[in-house]
Amino acid sequence: MTEPLLEGRQLRKAFGGLVAVDEVSLQIAPGSAHSIIGPNGAGKTTLFNLLSGRYRPTSGTVWFKGRNITKLPVYQRAHIGMGRSFQITNLFPQLTVLENVRLAVQAKGNDSFRLLRRVDTFTAPIEKALEVLELVGLRESAALPASVLPHGGKRKLELAILLAGDPEILLLDEPTAGMASEQVPELMATIDRVRRDGGQTIVLVEHNMNVVMSISDRITVMHLGRLLAEGTPTEIAGNTLVQDVYLGQLYDLSAGETPQS
Q1: What is the pLDDT of residue 91?
Q2: Phi, then psi, of 117 in degrees rounded to 5
Q3: Which among 82, 38, 89 has a CA at the least distance from the CA of 205?
Q4: How many other C-beta atoms lie within 10 A of the C-beta of residue 94?
Q5: Does the pLDDT of residue 111 top 80, yes or no?
Q6: 59-64/6-15 β-pairing
Q7: At 253, is the pLDDT very low, low, confident or very high (cuts 50, 70, 90)?
Q8: Which tens digits make up the pLDDT trace of 137-193?
Q9: Of 97, 153, 233, 243, which cross-links 149 as Cys (Cβ 3.0–4.6 Å)?
């Protein structure tokens, strides 16, 4: 059996008297797309934050490539191959698309603090940045200020910034949040292409069930801080407990209908 790339063991997170995650274990297989879903208050975002290092667990451990990283801060996790996005885009809006990615490339390399140099002397970082922009479909927008990109373009740029650090795993927090419905398929096709061409593992927290069912190899379902179910999209679609507790009549997984608000 293949060793998991990322693993949570008996994770628990309490905020005072509120237990947001209660003894949850999961394994993320290398090269897979693994989604974490659940209704509001289910604990999925807290679990995601435990895996990514934003929160430290009350108890339990997080492992990456066989190494206990429970106490490792976020910036150090980035250097060992973990990239994490947020629901709100985090860009330098007045810099160009290329400059945003070029700075991310430099942060990973040895030129982070060599500030008193002409930008055009950073040949290798620029070439790397252009390669990444090509992968996410933004190369033609390289010279534009990041601020002028549509929301979907900003999400692609955020993905490019993550890829600039050559991560082995991408932890994506609601990547389609705030996007117009017509922009979603293009972004998800970009993420799938990144996974296919770059070999990255994807961990996804996402409310859009059409996205989850189309891109995931495995799905973890959270409810009241606990792991309710885990399996392939087909298995989750046919799980009556998931439908009764989480989805009910709001969403027919097998039919692929959109939940009603």
Answers
A1: 87
A2: -135, 150
A3: 38
A4: 9
A5: no
A6: antiparallel
A7: very low
A8: 999 999 999 999 998 899 899 999 999 988 999 999 988 888 888 888 888 888 888
A9: 153
Half-sphere exposure of residue 50: CA atoms within 13 angstroms, side-chain side: 29
Pick from 25, 76, 16, 31: which is nearest to 52 by CA? 76
How far is residue 12's CA from residue 8's CA, in Å, rounded to a whole number?
10
Cα-to-chain-centroid distance, residue 120: 32
Stated pTM of the model: 0.84
CB 193 within 8 A of CB 156: no
45-58 pLDDT per residue, tens: 999 999 999 999 99
Residue of 121, 93, 91 whose CA lies nearest to 106: 121
In terms of Cβ atoms closer than 10 Å to its own Cβ (0-12, 13-18, 19+), residue 100 is buried
The Cα 51–Cα 53 span in angstroms is 6
pLDDT of residue 123: 85
Does residue 190 contact residue 136 with C-beta atoms inside 8 Å?
Answer: yes
Which distant-in-sequence residues (6+ apart) come within 8 Å of 42 by Cβ? Answer: 222, 223, 224, 225, 246
C-alpha separations of 85 from 123, 132, 204 in Å: 27, 16, 10
Q: How many residues does the chain have?
A: 261
Closest CA to 35 of 218, 186, 190: 218
> What radius of gyration do the chain's Cα atoms show?
19
Amino acid at 219: I
